[in-house]
């Protein structure tokens, strides 16, 4: 087995681990919102149900779908055009869902007459979604349409890759600070089941990001190493 095949095999195995933690985090978030927080409904008159749309969509969009889009481009065996199109479209879907998720938070604040964008969590989140959108626009015009020249694309590809990896960690940081902020707001004691559920959820989100990043890094060597 040559070096590139070794990298690809390792990257593929890491995607399975990443999927495990991503699905685990998704299930834990749904258990938290449906069992402990009463469900989620953007159109509800209950502000708590409106708010619950926010953590679910923000995780599902920027972190889960964002991570899946990154792994699809770097570790899936398909033509370059197919991988690039899936990567772009899944990220576009993530942006749309994230906008709905952020609007749920603003709607919740309006319903309870609370100030917007006042915490570190919100600052990180707003910065992340803005940079996420800029990253997508930059990538679309550079790599999809009208496309830059080949030397220019080769020059900016490492920066695009590093930017995507950084944005995934920024989204994870926003999620973890959001869980901590919500736990503090609810005044949960450390020994409550809900508090421990949130801790496990945060760990699953973090490990999902780590294994996505590792698989993408190895996938990069698969396609671009000089071996």
- What percent strand? under 5%
> Roughly how many Å is the radius of gyration?
19 Å
Poorly predicted runs: none
For the secondary structure, the number of strands is 0
Question: How are the SSEs ordered, and which strands pair?
Answer:
Elements: H1 3-36, H2 47-75, H3 80-111, H4 120-144, H5 150-186, H6 193-224
Protein described:
This protein is mainly alpha-helical. Helix content is 83%, strand content 0%. It has six helices and no strands. The chain has helices spanning 3-36, 47-75, 80-111, 120-144, 150-186, 193-224. Helix 4 runs antiparallel to helix 5 (150-186). The protein is globular, with a radius of gyration of 19 Å. 33% of the residues are buried.
A few lines on this structure:
With 227 residues, the protein is mainly α.
Relevant terms:
227 residues; mainly alpha
């Amino acid at each position: 087995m040559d070096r590139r095949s070794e990298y690809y095999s390792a990257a593929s195995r890491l995607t399975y681990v990443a999927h495990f933690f991503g699905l685990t985090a998704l299930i834990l978030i749904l258990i938290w919102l449906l069992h402990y927080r009463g469900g989620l409904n953007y159109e509800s008159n209950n502000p708590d149900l409106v708010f619950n749309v926010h953590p679910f969509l923000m995780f599902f969009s920027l972190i889960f779908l964002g991570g899946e889009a990154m792994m699809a481009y770097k570790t899936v065996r398909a033509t370059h055009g197919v991988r690039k199109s899936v990567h772009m479209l899944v990220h576009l879907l993530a942006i749309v869902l994230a906008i709905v998720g952020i609007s749920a938070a603003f709607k919740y604040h309006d319903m309870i007459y609370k100030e917007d964008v006042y915490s570190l969590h919100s600052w990180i989140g707003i910065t992340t979604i803005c940079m996420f959108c800029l990253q997508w626009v930059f990538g679309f015009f550079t790599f999809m349409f009208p496309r830059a020249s080949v030397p220019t694309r080769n020059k900016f590809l490492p920066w695009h890759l590093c930017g995507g990896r950084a944005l995934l960690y920024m989204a994870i940081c926003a999620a973890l600070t959001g869980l901590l902020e919500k736990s503090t707001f609810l005044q949960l004691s450390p020994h409550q089941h809900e508090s421990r559920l949130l801790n496990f959820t945060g760990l699953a989100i973090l490990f999902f990001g780590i294994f996505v990043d590792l698989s993408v890094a190895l996938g990069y060597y698969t396609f671009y190493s000089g071996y």
